[in-house]
Structures are given as structure tokens and as C-alpha cells.
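Throughout our pipeline, every protein is held as a single compact record rather than as scattered files. The record that follows is passed on verbatim for readers who wish to inspect the format.
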Amino acid sequence: MENPSSPPSEAREVHLDGRQVRVLAHPLRMRLLGSLRLDGPATATALAEKLHTNTGATSYHLRQLAEVGLVAEDPELGTGRQRWWRAVHDISNFEPTDFDDDPDARAAVEWIMADQVRHLVEAAQRWRSVAADHDRAWRDAAGMGDLVLALDPARLRALNDELWAVLMRYRDESLPPGPDARAVHVFLSAFPRVEDR
């Protein structure tokens, strides 16, 4: 999740701690943080309208995210009683094993990862449902595939790190976007194959 309003050179990353993952493991909070990262600062009212929820719930969950340093008020945009919120970081990461000694944080991480899988599936299904309405260049450029490799944990880590570096290079390229540029979802997922049971 990334905030296109931040120049690539200013990308900020946070390694989540146990308290942050416990707070983030909530459907509305994940959506709020994602929206602020993707679309930039917004008010609780605008976010509630966009995410089809009520302003009171949105305000409450923004305050919960702010309490652990994932979002913050943006005083430069606020006027009077209107409070604007922004994402504090462009990228969140963690190692699942960071929380092996904290059952609540470990459960939160499991929920976050399951929510990411659900988000991936929904995003892919939304594209597939409208792909035929897009021109040939977009349909041919969009892709999906899979490959099974024989890797040990060190090589799997190296593969993921190298692929992530490629994604960051594309994000950071200083080329001005062309007239056909649009936001593109890129999901990176590599994990040991588990046979159907």
C-alpha cells in the first residue's frame, strides 16, 4: 500500500511491533490505512463515505491507528473543526516470527495475512469481471501465473528480496507517467507448496 502523493524519494517504511499489528488487525482499520496510503490525506467524513461506513466509527478507528503511530492528523489541511488524517508510513512490514512469543500479536498477524489473501482474490476478481471492457494493450499487459520451484528457505528469502527490489525500482523510477498510466495492483506471494488434503 503506497501513497502516490509522496515523492518516491520520501517513501517511509515501518517495521510493525506487536501493539501495531494488534491494532491493525481490524477490517475497517486496514481499509482506512490503505485508503490514506493510496489516495492521500482525507477527513473522517470523506473516508466514511468512500468506505460505506459511519463517521463516528471512522473517527474512532482513525484515533486507534493514530495511537500506535500508523496515521496522524494533518494540521496543514485542517480548518476549524475539520480534521484531516494522513498515513504516517508508505509501507508496513513484519516477520511473522517476530510474534512467536506473543499469542495475541501472532493471531493478529494471521488475520492480517488472511485479509491480504482475501484482498488479492477480490482485486483479481474485480479485474477479471471488467477485463473484456478494456483495450487489448491492458488485457495483454495484465498477467497472472504461477511456477513451482525447488528452493530452500535462504533462496526463497533471496528470491522474495530480489523481486521486492524490482518492484521498488519501478515505483521509484523518475519517469513522468505517460498518458496511458494508471494505478496497477502488484501482489508478490511466494510460499512453500502444500498439497491438497
In short: The helical segments are 18-24, 27-39, 44-51, 55-67, 103-130, 136-141, 153-172. Residues 27 and 115 are 8 Å apart (CA to CA).
